[in-house]
Each structure stands twice: as C-alpha cells, then as structure tokens.
Amino acid sequence: SKWVYRFGGGEAEGRAADVERLGGKGANLAEMASLGLPVPPGLTIVADACVFYFNNNRTIPDDLKTQVLEGITVIEGQTGRVFGGKAKPLLLSVRSGARASMPGMMDTVLNLGLNDETVQALGHDAGDARFAWDSYRRFIQMYADVVMGLDHEIFEEILEDEKARLGHDYDTDLSAVEWQHIVSLYKRMIEDELDTSFPQDPHVQLWGAIRAVFSSWMNPRAVTYRMLHRIPEEWGTAVNVQTMVFGNLGSSSATGVAFTRNPSTGERELYGEFLVNAQGEDVVAGIRTPQSITEEGRIASGSEKPSMEKLMPEAFAEFRAICDRLEIHYRDMQDLEFTIERGKLWMLQTRSGKRTTRAAMKIAVDMVEEGVITEEEAVCRIEPPSLDQLLHPTIDPRVERHVVGSGLPASPGAATGEIVFTAEEAVEAEHEGRKVILVRIETSPEDIHGMHAAEGILTTRGGMTSHAAVVARGMGIPCVVGAGSMRVDMRNELLIGGGGVTLKRGDTVTIDGSSGQVLKGAVPMIQPALSGDFGKLMAWADKTRRMTVRTNADTPQDARAARSFGAEGIGLCRTEHMFFEGDRIHVMREMILAEDEKGRRAALGKLLPMQRSDFIELFSIMHGLPVTIRLLDPPLHEFLPKTEAEIAEVAKAMAMPPAFLARRIDAIHEFNPMLGHRGCRLAISYPEIAEMQARAIFEAAVEAGKLTGEPVELEIMVPLVSLRKELDYVKGVIDRVAEDVAKETGVPIAYLAGTMIELPRAAIRAHVIAETAEFFSFGTNDLTQTTFGMSRDDAAAFIPTYQRKGIIEHDPFISLDFDGVGELIQMAAERGRRTRNDLKLGICGEHGGDPASIRFCENADLDYVSCSPFRVPIARLAAAQAAI
Ligand code: PEP
Ligand code: MG
Questions:
Q1: How far is the CA of 497 from the centre of ligand 2 (A)?
Q2: Res. 47 pLDDT band, cuts 50 70 90
Q3: pTM value?
Q4: Assuming Cys at both sites, which of 138, 402, 787, 802 could form a disulfide with 807, CB separation 3.0 to 4.6 Å?
Q5: Where does ligand 1 bind, in terms of residues with CB under 6 Å?
Q6: Helix or strand or coil: residue 367?
Q7: Cα 719 to ligand 2 centre (Å)
C-alpha cells in the first residue's frame, strides 16, 4: 500500500482534502507545495502507518521502509544534498501531525542527520562552524530526550555548568570550539546514563525518530488531550519528514509565526512576530522578545526593534503575497509558520487560525462582505456555545488563574464578589452597594431574593438542573454548582477549597460559570459588547433556520432579556417560580399548608391578583408572540420551611402554633417528592388551584389584549401527565374557567391546551394523549430523569465517574441522550402527529439550549425549542446550523 506522500519542488502527491491520511500539517504542506509556494521538500508518512505500528506490536511495515528511502532519494535530488553526505549533508525534521490539531502533545526531532562527520560538512558548507556545532548539540539533546528517553534537564545542567565555567552569560556567547566540547560532554553523558552511544548512522537516527513520533501518539499527555477533545485513538498520527531550513544562519535569517488577520479582534491586518537569527523553538520558548512583522504592528506595540517589513523588505513582500493567496485559497484566516534562510523565504505550516469569538464574528461577516464566503458558511463558522463569550463578562484569558475548586458550569459568565453564606446577607450587601457571591450547599426558593442580589452563585451540591442552576440561568447570573471538591462550613462561615485553601465570609472569590472554576481573589474581566457584526450574523442565522426559538421565562426581567436576545415567545413559564419572590412565598406556603379547601381558597384568593398582574406584564412584553403558561408544578418540599426557626416564623405569619404547623408539614412530607404529589396530580387533588391560575391567565389575557392591541397567542400547559384522563380532567377545569371569564368580560380568549411530555408513559401513549392535547412540549429534564431513573438533583455525584470510566460519554441532563430519551421523543412526535397532524411540538427542558440537542430537534421535526434567556442567541445559531 501507499504509505508515503511526497511534496516539494512545486508539486505534491497529496492535497488539503487528504487530511485523514496525511494529518493536518501534512495535508497543508502538500497543498502549499502544489500551489507552487516555497515549501522545503519532504514526505508525509500516512496515519495508517501509525495504526499499523500499534496493531502489529510496534513494527514498521517493510514497504514503508522502502518508500521512505525512495522519498529521501527524491528529496536529495531536489535539494542537491545527500542524507549522511560528507559534502552537502541533508538534514531533516521529523514531526507529528494528526488529523486534529494537538498542539505540543506529541514529539518532534529537528536537525536529524548530524553526526561527527556531517557536522564538519555542515559547518564547511554554511561557512559557519559555530552554527553547525550548535545545531549538533541541539539535535543530541532533542534526540536523547524524545527517542532515547533521557530528560533534557540533564543536558541543560551541563550547558549551564559550562557557561559558568567559561564565564558566559548567554548561549550566543559560546564559540564553535566550546560547543564542540559540549557535544562531547553530551555524548559522554548518554554513554554513562544508557550504556550505549549516540547513534551516528543517519538512517538509524531516522527510524528512531519515526518510531518515537508514532509512539508519542500514546504518551499520557496525548491520551489525556484526546479524551478532553474527543479525538478517537484509532486515528493515529501522520509523520512529516522534511528538509531542514535554518533561521539561525546569521542576520539575514529569521523565523516567525503570523496570522492573516488579527486573531483577537478579527481586524483585517497581517499580524505576527519573528526573531532574527533564531530557530522556530526560540519564538515559542519566549527567551527573546519577538519583533513585529509589519511596520504598523511595530508602531502599535510601541517597539523600537525594526519590523520584518523594514529589515527584510523582499522576503516580507513575498510573505505578504503568500498570506493573501493562502487566505483566498482556504477561504479562511490562516495561522502560518515560516523561516527565512539567508534571505530566502520558506513556508513551514499553514492552518485555520484559532480566534476569539469576537474575531470569529468579525472575520465571518467581513469575508461575506468581501465575497469570499456565503452567508450560510459564515453562520456555520461560529461555534454556538462560544457566543457566551459575547454575552457575559469573561475572565481575561491572559491572566493566571488561582483555582481553588471546581464544579459544573451551570450558568455562563464570570463574577467576582465577597463571599456571603445567606440570602439575607446578599440582599443587605446589595443595599450597601457591595458585590457578593452567594455560597450555599444548595439553594431553595427562599434564597431567590439573595440570588437576585448576588453577582454570582456557588453551590457545593446539585447538578445542571438543580434549583440554583435553573434559576441562575434564567436570571443570567453566573453560577457554578456541585463543586464537590469544596466544602461549606456554615457554622464557622468558611468555604474550604481543594489543597486546603480556606476562605472566610467577606473574602473575595471569582466564579467562572463557563468553565466551572472557582478562583481566589478578583480577576481582570473582559466586558461584553454586542457589536454590529453580531447583529448581522444573527440575522443571517434567522433567515436560515426553520424552528422558532422561544425562551423559558417566569419573570418580566427574564422575558425582557430574552426578547432583547431575539426570543420569539415564551415556551415555558414555570408559574411556581413566580411565587419565590418577596412575600409571595408566605402566601404560597399558606396555600400548601392549608388544612382544607376553604383555607386553600383563602390563600388562592390572595395569589390571584399577583398572578394576574404578572401575566399581564409577560403578555405585554411578548406583544402577541406565543406564550406558554404551565400550571403549577412545585415539588412541594421546595416551598416548605425546614429549620425550627423557619417553622416558627411561618407559624407566626400564619397565626398558628408551631407544633400544629410542624404536624401539617409532617403530614404532607413525601419520601420522594420528585415522583410525588406534583404536576397535574396537584391540580387533580386540588382543582381550585388550577381554577385560580386559569382565571388569572384569562383575565390577564383580556387586559393585555386591551393594553397592547394584540391578542395574546396563548397556550396553557399541564405538567407531568402520564394518562390522558389526567389531562381531560384538568383541561375540563381550564375550559370551564375560560367560559366563565368570557361571559364576565364579554371577551372570548382563544387558547390551546396542551401538555408536557416528561414521563415515558406519556411518550408511549402520545397518540391517545394527543386526542386531548393541542400541543406537546417535551420536558426533557424530567423525561431524562424518569427514563434513566436517575435523580436530576443527585446525578452530579456519579455522572463524572461514569464519564471517567467510559460508561457514558456526556451528561444526559446537559446533552440529550439520543438513543433512549431521543427515541421516546421521536416516537411521541410521530404518534402524536398521527392523531393530530397540526399538533405543535416543542422542547422546553434544559436541552433546548444545547446545540447537539437542537440538531436532534431539527431532525425530529419539532416546531420550536425553548431555552433560558441567555441561551437564546446560541439556540438561534444552532437551529440555523442544524437546518443547513
Ligand atoms: C422538564 O422537566 O424538562 C421541564 C422543563 O420542567 P421542570 O424543569 O420545571 O421540571
Ligand atoms: Mg418537569
């Protein structure tokens, strides 16, 4: 089989599209060579050879050996040099190059082919013995490290000792003879350490290096990197063997890196750095400060050192032309590496450049305007989750992070503040103008006011759908949950982090809700700015997508934020959340704890006007867009007072003895509230609750219609249905109230009555439920919980273990489980539509804001997705990409 692809001399056997075989680096070297760009000749060993190597007990196929030797003969012809030659020796670099970029994870060997003879020839040929001996010692050091497994530190020590002995400060102070001596010390060290001498035969060196690069595919660094970036182990790495060119051959030589556009702002300007008389490693190592490539860049950076444009005008002009050409050719911003050897420019690498979201946005929009890419391509160039970077303050990526713990990234953005441990303190601090992070073991409805007042929320327990996570996302407040490596000591008001870091109340912390990290102290932030490019790109996305994007909003604040992010309605208003605020929780408790219908009706009477005014506001903000109101679905325990002090307080407010109240609490105690008396079950036990809510909804719709002049597109949703008769019963209550309100006000209100599909039985019986339901909204939080039988509030304790052990790939509460939960959704959608072909279908679980899940929804032909306000732009973009 063909193991080797040659490139150089204006032609190449491979192409950019051969990235699977040739790896990223090899494919692009081939492409550049075939474009006639100056690429040092070389060859790429395909990634399959690496796979063969590992599948065959680390052996190299025989025909690979022949093909490499043939390739080297061709390179010798192209360069006029001979591998191991005693006159003009050919030196090679051997580098890894996988299909996906794995920066710095695998091994490289440079200056290969040097030995005690060729070093002399190289010095003679270059007219620079010092350079030759310096290259030789670099080679020995690298080879001994990568191939022979000796720590490069021991060579550094030798070098430092010698410099001290000779009285030199810098490597550049060493003469040829001094380097030569160091080479002999290096070789002796290898013999002492390994009982073998440094290989002199260039072919032995070459195969040693190739094997080492193959083997580095399985080094622990690379294995970890692959796991983090989901790169399959089966890919293997290609190996690039290429003629060395030298940027360290005096003042007319240089090496550098560049981007065809500014990778942090996206500005259309060549942006890069170079070093005179240096090898590539020196730029990366940061020993010397690199100089700017362009004059413009030099002036902007305020540097005195001359630019490449000034210093090497010819090479610069050629380089700039190549940059333009490559950018047009690849139709994307490129990240390039180059070397200038005695005035001659050589291209060593090109690839799509990494960039910030802001830059990505600007580049995509500019390239459409320049006619380089289409609007649809621009839409596909932005990773939806990266939009977070634009909507929230983020931690400046250039600063060092002092991480003291980490949890789940529950709500994006970063926030800094003083630690407080109670909601009351948070509220107090807000009044005093202090910024705080509310730290709790977990949050409950009573904490809502404190959550509002805080800059960020940190809990040590709970998962992505825990109370803290859901509420914080809704509010757009950064939040980290389930930071299990940290401990809250409420009594002593301490937050104890990993590594024994203890933080007190009042200490400053920063949480990064995008990564889940908790950092000590304050950290510099980058503020969000929704530029014009953002608007343009999102408009293209909106033109492209089929599904509409709604929001999960319970408060006017959420609704306004969501509208500003482009939400096209409310897909889920969790009415129970409307009772978390202020004094309402007391009335809510009164209602829940009431002993009989009379007591309940009294409390409901107080709740009615509150609900009505909330709905009026929500309807007005949405101004004729669809609004789905869900009837009460409280896991009742969330509302109940827990501690003795809380019980005493509530008892006082309800004018009953605490002991009596405690008995009521006991009476409604549930062993498993998530599977208990919640959802439609509550409305069936206490229809007066649904009655009150329906009345508030219809009366509000009448009012809002008058206020805005637009009829509300109203959908009333019944939660946690598993039987059609449950829905029939609750819908009966709703319909009766609708008639009553129409009679009383003289204004009939149009509405749809539908249900959530959040239990497996409902999905299975969807065709029957659809006889009553006019729409379905998939509640994938509960559907995931009940399909897996995994508590959404407790799963965070074991899901990371499952991931580590390879039992599941991702957290099914974050990204939909296509095979199980997804199949139920598909089935329910099909069965439901069979009964009612205009059945409206949407999703309102947390998955509605997850790009992979959104793609699934597109394929399942849902009508809309609904997600928390700050995810609306992400969902708009992801829905567009799914439709392309
Ligand atoms: C769901 O279960 O997916 C849902 C949206 O409802 P909640 O999260 O309020 O239970
Ligand atoms: Mg639910």
A1: 33
A2: very high
A3: 0.81
A4: 802
A5: 572, 574, 633, 758, 779-782, 844-845
A6: helix
A7: 7
